[in-house]
């Protein structure tokens, strides 16, 4: 059995759980998510010295994982979709007094999240759906914590615009 490079083993240990959780959010099945992530890590291992030479190995690995997730979705004859899974798996829905109203609200929110640019969507999913800290999100995406905070801020503003919340808040302020 071939011994894996220690830095690859550490990278794998650090990122695999978050990668599987992210892929599962889109693929809806843990086994499919694990397959996509394992496929991504196999690809990374075959070119590991080149991966390490990249400006941000984590950013590169994140993109490889996302592409493998899309590939697995296509191989299963479906499209990866945040809405189909996440809207039905929220804590708010489980605890809702009005589950139908909460489901509608969740569906609207996740449709809005899907409309975000890719980087904003990734940050929002990691921070708010998966509960990662700013630092952890930065490590997984291969960006700085400041970039995560800035991206999250722009994403929240964009979500407010999409959902019409910014206009409603301004109207409420004017009415007061």
Characterise the protein shown here.
With 176 residues, this protein is an all-alpha fold. The protein is 78% helix and 0% strand. Helix 1 crosses helix 4 (57-75), helix 8 packs across helix 10 (145-163) and helix 9 crosses helix 10 (145-163). The longest helix has 22 residues, at 6-27. The chain is globular and about 55 Å long.
Sheet with the most strands, sense and barrel status: none
Say what the CATH topology of the largest domain is. Answer: Arc Repressor Mutant, subunit A
Number of helices: 11
Mean pLDDT: 83
- Please report the first level of CATH classification, the CATH class of the largest domain: Mainly Alpha
CA-based shape: globular
- How many angstroms does the end-to-end distance come to? 71 Å
Task: Specify the helix fraction band.
Answer: over 70%
Which series of helices and strands comes N to C? HHHHHHHHHHH
CATH superfamily of the largest domain: Winged helix-like DNA-binding domain superfamily/Winged helix DNA-binding domain
């Amino acid at each position: 059995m071939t011994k894996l490079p220690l830095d690859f083993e550490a990278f794998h240990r650090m990122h695999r759980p978050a990668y599987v959780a992210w892929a599962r959010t889109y693929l809806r099945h843990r086994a499919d998510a694990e397959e996509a992530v394992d496929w991504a890590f196999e690809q990374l291992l075959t070119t590991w010295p080149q991966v390490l030479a990249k400006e941000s190995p984590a950013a590169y690995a994140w993109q490889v994982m996302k592409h493998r997730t899309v590939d697995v979705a296509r191989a299963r004859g479906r499209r990866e979709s945040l809405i189909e899974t996440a809207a039905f798996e929220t804590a708010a829905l489980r605890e809702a007094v009005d589950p139908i109203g909460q489901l509608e609200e969740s569906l609207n929110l996740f449709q809005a999240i899907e409309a975000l640019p890719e980087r904003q969507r990734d940050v929002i999913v990691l921070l708010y759906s998966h509960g990662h800290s700013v630092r952890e999100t930065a490590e997984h995406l291969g960006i700085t914590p400041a970039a995560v905070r800035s991206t999250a801020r722009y994403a929240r503003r964009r979500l407010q615009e999409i959902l019409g919340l910014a206009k409603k808040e301004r109207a409420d302020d004017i009415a007061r």
